[in-house]
Amino acid sequence: xxxxxxxxxxxxxxxxxxxxxVGGAITRGLDGQTEEPVxxxxxxxxxxxxxxxxxxxVTIDLDNPIVVFEHVFKQLPDxxxxxxxxxxxxxxxWANSQEISGNMRLDAxxxxxxxxxxGYFGAHNKPENIExxxxxxxxxxxxxxxxxxxxxxxxxxxxxxxxxKSVVFQLNDLDQAVSSDFPLRSSEQYMARTKDESGFxxxxxxxxxxxxxxxxxxxxxxxxxxxxxLEEGLYxxxxxxFAFYEDELGRKILIGVDADNVxxxxxxxxPFDQLADNFVxxxxxxxxxxxxxxxxxxxxxNHGVFHGNNGERLDSRLxxxxxxxxxxxxxxxxxxxxxxxxxxxxxxxxxxTGDYKESVPGAEEK
Length: 366
Description:
Shape: globular
Number of strands: 18
Largest sheet: 5 strands, mixed
Structural class: alpha+beta
Radius of gyration: 23 Å
Oligomer: single chain
Distance between the termini: 36 Å
Number of helices: 6
């Protein structure tokens, strides 16, 4: 989850010039000559006015998830597109002088049972503990008993209705075929293509030799951030803070996320919880997870979701985190430098993508 950057647009007198171009109109420049039309791309603009008036003008019962759901649902358009591949539709609003972040989710299994998951929490500027985000928070599975109807219209198209309003949720039909020009090592298995709430797409790989996963940046699509090289082979997203190592095959492997984003539970907290749930057809992902993370053996389903002793599906899943969290660029540089000295390329990658949970033993090993 995360933040929408709010921008105050200010036009100073010194910035106004004769013959300013608006849209595609032909105008005159400073020299009086006719200029060719310039096309201006249209996009959403977020104003500081929206932020201030939003914070100060709305009061609702934040302790009642049905009230909060209705507040959000009634403002949805007739059809929405769900980009993240774990089927979360995120939202943000201001109420009671707080910024509220949340999501509604059509889980790959529960949606066909008529269930919609709904949750939200109040933002915190510098959370140090999980409790810091629970000052205002709640979650509820909504279904017919709550007046919420979930109807399947096609494989990845669902209609949700509540109190006379209906909204179509178009889930992401993300192509799962590996690109012909995407290089794979002999020990690597292509698991899925994923997209998280940051807008980044990743190729999820499993290395059977190292028994570990990698998130590799999908550069076949336009990136939702600007990457720059912090030092040779180390790339950073200017907004996301995602850190990538460019390997010998020219691939950018995710090796780190900003710890502050993880604490805030925002859009840049990493792709660990945005797997390609809609496209899980067999137990290949489960087998790879159980091999890489011995402690989950016999405890997860094909999606990596934990189940209880009676086989009931729980509300938690394996967090796939083959990357580090860092508090500063200095800390990231130090970590990167240590791993770069490991020797072979395989050893460097293994160091950079280590996940502490891989060393947690299974029940039979304790």
